[in-house]
Design brief:
binds 2-amino-4-trifluoromethylsulfanyl-butyric acid, six-stranded antiparallel β-sheet, 248 residues, binds cobalt (II) ion, alpha+beta
């Protein structure tokens, strides 16, 4: 069952969305070569408590942290650690919060210092795929229109899309229906209705699409070691078109 939200509920989700995106933007500004991902986790923990926002990921199915920090070939669910990011790396930051009972969830991937031209292109294709996907979040479209927009743009540009992990509906729960794959066909899947709120997540690989999960049972990496970019926004489907609740 897909839960449609009232305008008042969408405003609550916008509050959560703005808080989560604000902290991510602070992290983006703050991260420098030589920092550990655990330092970013500590910063996040402190900011969430200052903002009276509860972490949504910590304890979720046993996940140990507030933040997911995924470096280079890590696609998603990297656990903050003593690893130091270096110039030329890319760092995926994914954060979830709960404010007043409503969940906010967003992600972005930042270059550390100067990165190579192919890596810059990967980040651009990842962000563009998300924007094209958001544009499909309209009453009368289907989930497959969103999925196809991501897949088409990524593959046309020589990248591949992850199949094993998907975007999701969001509301009082972090993961609600429907699932939003990064691959699919236009006109297929659940119909989009006014009041649906979707966390659309693009996970784009520079090499092949195959995924492996590390021994920690969380970190998803590309099987071929190619870099991967992750971007996520929450979008409400409204009669006036897509409304991004995590815009900063
Ligand atoms: N943005 C991811 C998701 O929506 C992050 C979840 S991490 C977890 O699934 F620990 F909460 F699972
Ligand atoms: Co998500």
């Amino acid at each position: 069952m897909i839960i449609c939200k009232s305008p008042a509920e969408i405003e609550k989700l916008r509050r959560s969305g703005r808080i989560v995106r604000g902290v991510l933007e602070e992290l983006r500004d703050r991260v420098k070569p030589g920092m550990t991902t655990l330092e970013l986790e500590k910063y996040t923990e402190r900011r969430l408590s200052e903002l009276n926002a509860k972490p949504a990921f910590k304890g979720y199915r046993g996940y140990p942290c507030c933040l997911c920090a995924s470096v280079n070939e890590q696609i998603i669910h990297g656990i903050p650690s003593a690893r130091r990011v270096q110039e030329g790396d890319i760092l995926g930051l994914d954060l979830g919060v709960i404010v007043d009972g409503y969940v906010g969830d967003s992600a972005l991937t930042v270059p550390i210092g100067a990165v190579s031209a192919p890596v810059q292109k990967l980040l651009r294709i990842g962000e563009e795929s998300l924007e094209l996907a958001i544009a499909q979040a309209r009453v009368g479209n289907r989930v497959g229109d969103i999925s196809a927009a991501i897949q088409t743009h990524a593959e046309r540009n020589g990248c591949s899309v992850v199949h094993e992990f998907v975007g999701h509906g969001i509301g009082r729960e972090l993961h609600e229906e429907p699932q939003i794959p990064n691959f699919g066909s236009p006109g297929r899947g659940p119909a989009l209705k006014e009041g649906m709120v979707l966390a659309i997540e693009t996970m784009i690989n520079s090499g092949g699409p195959e995924v492996r999960v590390l021994e920690d049972q969380w970190t998803a990496v590309t099987a071929d070691g190619g870099f991967s970019a992750h971007f996520e926004h929450m979008v409400a489907v409204t009669r006036n078109g897509p409304d991004v609740l995590t815009r900063w």
